[in-house]
From TrEMBL, chain A:
Keyword Metal-binding: yes
Amino-acid biosynthesis keyword on record: yes
GO CC terms in record: acetolactate synthase complex
EC class name: transferase
Cofactor note: Binds 1 thiamine pyrophosphate per subunit. Binds 1 Mg(2+) ion per subunit.
Pathway: Amino-acid biosynthesis; L-isoleucine biosynthesis; L-isoleucine from 2-oxobutanoate: step 1/4; Amino-acid biosynthesis; L-valine biosynthesis; L-valine from pyruvate: step 1/4
Domain Thiamine pyrophosphate enzyme N-terminal TPP-binding as annotated: residue spans: 11-127
NCBIfam families tied to this protein: acolac_lg, PRK09107.1
Annotated Pfam families: TPP_enzyme_C, TPP_enzyme_M, TPP_enzyme_N
Keywords carried by this UniProt record: Amino-acid biosynthesis, Branched-chain amino acid biosynthesis, FAD, Flavoprotein, Magnesium, Metal-binding, Thiamine pyrophosphate, Transferase
Name of the protein in its database record: Acetolactate synthase
Automatic annotation (TrEMBL), chain B:
Record EC number: 2.2.1.6
Gene3D superfamilies associated with the record: 3.30.70.260, ACT-like. Chain A, domain 2
Family classification: Belongs to the acetolactate synthase small subunit family.
Annotated source species: Bradyrhizobium nanningense
Subunit comment: Dimer of large and small chains.
Domain ACT: 21-96
PANTHER family: ACETOLACTATE SYNTHASE SMALL SUBUNIT (PTHR30239), ACETOLACTATE SYNTHASE SMALL SUBUNIT 1, CHLOROPLASTIC (PTHR30239:SF0)
Enzyme's top EC category: transferase
Full protein name: Acetolactate synthase small subunit
Amino acid sequence: MSDKSHDPNQMTGAAMIVRALIDHGVTDIFGYPGGAVLPIYDEIFQQSEVQHILVRHEQGAGHAAEGYARSTGKPGVALVTSGPGATNMVTPLTDALMDSIPLVCISGQVPTHLIGNDAFQECDTVGITRPCTKHNWLVRDVNDLAKVLHEAFYVATSGRPGPVLVDVPKDVQFATGTYHPPRKSDVHRSYAPRVKGDAAQIRKAVALLAGAKRPVIYSGGGVINSGPEATKLLRELVEVTGFPITSTLMGLGAYPASGKNWLGMLGMHGTYEANMAMHDCDVMLCVGARFDDRITGRVDAFSPGSKKIHIDIDPSSINKNIRVDVPIIGDCGNILGDILQVFKAEAKKPEIKNWWQQIAQWRARNSLYYKKSNDVILPQHAIQSLFEATRGKDTYITTEVGQHQMWAAQFYGFEEPHRWMTSGGLGTMGYGLPAAVGVQVAHPDSLVIDIAGDASVQMTMQEMSTAVQYELPIKIFILNNQYMGMVRQWQQLLHGNRLSHSYSEALPDFVKLAEAYGAVGLQVHKPGDLDGAIQEMISVKRPVLFDCRVAALENCFPMIPSGKAHNEMLLPEQANDEATAKAFAGGKALV
Amino acid sequence: MNQPASAYFIEERHDPNETHTLAVLVQNEPGVLARVIGLFSGRGYNIESLTVSETEAQKHLSRITIVTTGTPMVIAQIKNQLDRMIPVYQVVDMTQTRRSIERELAMVKVRGQGEHRVETLRLADAFRARVIDATTESFVFEITGNTDKINQFIDLMRPLGLVEVSRTGVAAIGRGPEGM
């Protein structure tokens, strides 16, 4: 018998977890210790290759890992204990599932013999997280652990990326078994995401594109997930075809906001020109987006006259909400490359001058118009000022969820992918602050700003403490209107202005709160002081809470009212009381 | 025409519902059935019948047969959603191929005396149901066939003293020499 004690691959389950992280190139993880993960924390203590960031709440670990993942393209890793540690991860896991973010969560579990006994801090973690992960595993044997961990990383990052969870009972962490480095056979034979697009479908798509009179490209987060090559190819396709391009909330930055073919974001709070182009186009090329209800508006009136091409790596996205004519399943970088190749060889730039003239007329409506004031800061103005002050800097933006998020999407111009981290699908208030922590860990020398609302930011405010501990100079730019602004807006538009519980009677003094955390607090009331205060915020090399007092009752326009089509947008100049009442009549049921 | 109040109400297309039988080949690992069922309940799909058993022990393969209803768009969604689950190898729409056989087994307990008992036996014979348990006042029949045949048999037994029914749900397999 060979002497196993000298075999370097013999180790405890806890050691395997740290080794697997190193083998997968993980340098930073976010977590919170507890009884069921103590062996893993003991291993973390005894090494220096993986840096652990201690958060203040497990939800913060999850969102930080998401921010880390979105800003780098690498998987984010979170480590939590059993029971409440795991249940606190449910929100970030669901968030990552909705937005296709690669996330690997390792959770501790009570020892195998106690599973099912209602033991202290026990919960059915794999049961609870089954619908909010791409896949999850409970590891009952230490000799399965290495394979499962490698498979977890593969599943999280391949195909349509997503969150995975590996639940490891404490006795498995203590037990000794055989580790092996990642290898190809560590993957379910049943899991084989399709990457390459079907050649015949690609030819059909090119034929449609080449014959288009009123084309539009509608791109989404899939382009960014696919990697830098997809972004490059998308830009090239726009250049080669001369087509106008719009994007979902998740896709901002894939095509530069300063690009001449850019229409702005589409959807419920998208620009007039983007939504009108979607409605009136004759050929729509959807790249890595999923026809979400916030994009389509009224489904049976969605882009009625167009042939639709849909590129998506997930076959279940095809024909889910909107029937398409030419579905192409595969990685969008790969497929864009093929489309470009065929287009360049066989087609020439279609003549679409009339279409651009039409678009120019829609643009002239200036749908993002708002009325500036000398007395009070308009939230749109605040974002524009922030954008001007950070233009050309190495900046990453995260957001919370609500009006400020939509204004950020409308008024902050993104030039590059991976610079915009927002909770799109799930709409998680409290996402932005911990996400900023994760982004700053990944990019220590960059300017990381969370554009926040006063309500959202309080949901995960405790992570300021994390930022201070690790000297992460994140900037929390709070558009403070003392309301849950989007809730108030809907109550005004749809519920007779009965502002039920959308006003925060007692907000903290954010300046004092910042100081209590050991961060810097700034407050500004007057438009004239805004630029100076923003400069001060940027120059401070410490975490900042920036309390930007803005007009309380400003609404976010333009807006597609409930049950309406893209060409029935409500523009800001039309949004008087009568028009709004009419536009929103009977639409209460829309979420 | 009345405008629907919300986009959520007009989303439903009024295509007629279809019933489809899906054969799903899965890795037999803990939780795999929960995943499949969770998908159906979580996304609001129907399950009319569900049959599951390990079919190839060495390869750890199980076969799940699901009878479901929905519009063609929903059926396509169900197949795609099943197919993208990590432990799912293959999803075959047995209804779409139109070359499949479906069978179900039911055990039917009937209680009665006198003329009813004779009539019960005569009908059972016509349906090729076997008696697998008998007392002086009851029978348990075993019957196999497609769902319609079993439904019909159960309906006929009802006035003759039907006590209870246990059904396996549908199993399906393709005709001809090819596997799935």
